[in-house]
Amino acid sequence: MKTCLITGGAGFLGSKYCDFFLKNRYRVLCVDNNFSKLNKLKKRFKKNFFAYQCDISDNNEVENLFKLTKNYFVDVLINNAAIDAVPFSNLSSKSRFPTLENWDREINVSIKGSFLMIKFFGENMKSKKKGSIINVGSDLSVIAPNQKIYEKSYKNYIKPVTYSVIKHAMLGLTKYFSSLYASCGVRVNMVSPGSIKNKQKLNFINELKKNIPMNRLGYPHDIFGVLKMLASDDSLYITGQNIIIDGGRTVI
User: Fold this and answer.
1) Which pLDDT score, from 0 to 100, does residue 152 have?
2) How far from the centroid of its chain's Cα atoms is residue 75's Cα?
3) DSSP per residue over 28-71, as a string?
4) Please, what is the average pLDDT of the chain?
5) What CA–CA distance (Å, rounded) separates 168 from 242?
6) Which CATH superfamily is domain 3-251 in?
7) What pTM was computed for the model?
8) Pairwise CA distance, residues 239 & 228, whole Å
9) Which residues, other chains included, contact 101 with Cβ-Cβ below 8 Å and sequence gap of 6+?
10) Which strands make up the sheet holding 49-53, listed edge to edge?
């Protein structure tokens, strides 16, 4: 049985990925820093599901995680952890800059955390000369956010610069390690979903749809097929790619 490790596995999309890989007969190692969400998933998923609380931005905690899971060779590593920039409308004025505390926290989780996971689990793949690393990006890995989309539903909200910086940096991380590991049988790719439906306001959905040629938001199952391909031997000659799943939004 192959093993898939998913960071941020207790979040909205992370839990969907866990469910998908379990149904495809993978052993799933779900890593998250949210204890209560992990416990809920442990009750929901039982067979072949293992939950680990870990701050992936901490080198010692990731090293300990690697030791705890040493009985399982991680065939597929999905770097999904991120602090999502959820729209809100309670600002008294438009805030164009995140606090330095938020800047450090968000970049530490996504970029530093993904790097540390590759440092331990990717290097183990390299030693075994096999494995697939899938970084999770966004359509904002290749475009800038259209701030006008938020105006009707979230009057004072501005998509923060941190989110764009992180998603562009994930692409750099992907290209770097894909080149470094290419001769070792380890593939490193990225999937970049566009907007995924998740209880957004109707006005906001309508504004988004105007920018999407397919005229709809994505669903988690729209991502599954690409994940399955990149995790399997069907993609043995694919590395360093950013596969954008956005209904055509980034082509116009």
Assistant:
1) 81
2) 17
3) EEEEES-HHHHHHHHHH--TTEEEEE--TT-HHHHHHHHHHTTT
4) 95
5) 11
6) NAD(P)-binding Rossmann-like Domain (3.40.50.720)
7) 0.96
8) 15
9) none
10) 49-53, 27-32, 3-7, 76-79, 131-136, 186-193, 242-245
- Report whether 174 contacts 238 (CB < 8 A): no
For residue 247, which of 200, 201, 197 has the smallest C-alpha distance? 197
Taking the alpha carbons at both ends of the chain, their separation in whole angstroms is: 42
pLDDT of amino acid 2: 98
Q: Cα–Cα distance between 190 and 200 in angstroms, integer?
A: 25
The domain spans of the chain are: 3-251
Confidence of residue 92 (pLDDT cuts 50, 70, 90): very low
Spell out a b/e string for 22-47, using b for 16 or more CB atoms within 10 Å of the CB, else e.
beeebbbbbbbbeeebbeebeeebee
What pLDDT is recorded for position 95? Answer: 64
Cα dihedral 119/122/125/126 (nearest 10) = -70
